[in-house]
Specification:
Elements: H1 9-20, H2 25-33, H3 39-53, H4 60-70, H5 75-87
């Protein structure tokens, strides 16, 4: 839904927001893809990534570098990362 350019902007924003709350590793990859989108989607993607990871990078390059380091995490390692963030 977030990638559907014909969908209403608010619907796309809500899809991005929801991805940030799923806790899923795959959601991070999708959200990173929106860090260089138009401002209305970019802003929501950045907030969703912060919610998902606990990191507050403001630019696409830092998020892409982060994803490059973390995209191949196993399910267990991702859960460890999430638990460390939630426990802090």
């Amino acid at each position: 839904i977030a990638r559907d350019e014909k969908a209403d902007l608010r619907v796309r924003q809500t899809a991005l927001w929801a991805m940030g709350r799923t806790g899923r590793h795959a959601a991070a990859g999708v959200l990173v893809g929106f860090t260089d989108a138009k401002e209305d989607l970019r802003r929501i993607a950045l907030a969703a990534l912060t919610e998902l990871t606990g990191l507050a990078y403001a630019d696409s390059a830092r998020w892409k570098a982060w994803w490059g380091r973390n995209k191949d995490l196993t399910h267990e390692k991702w859960l460890e990362f999430r638990l460390a963030y939630q426990g802090s």
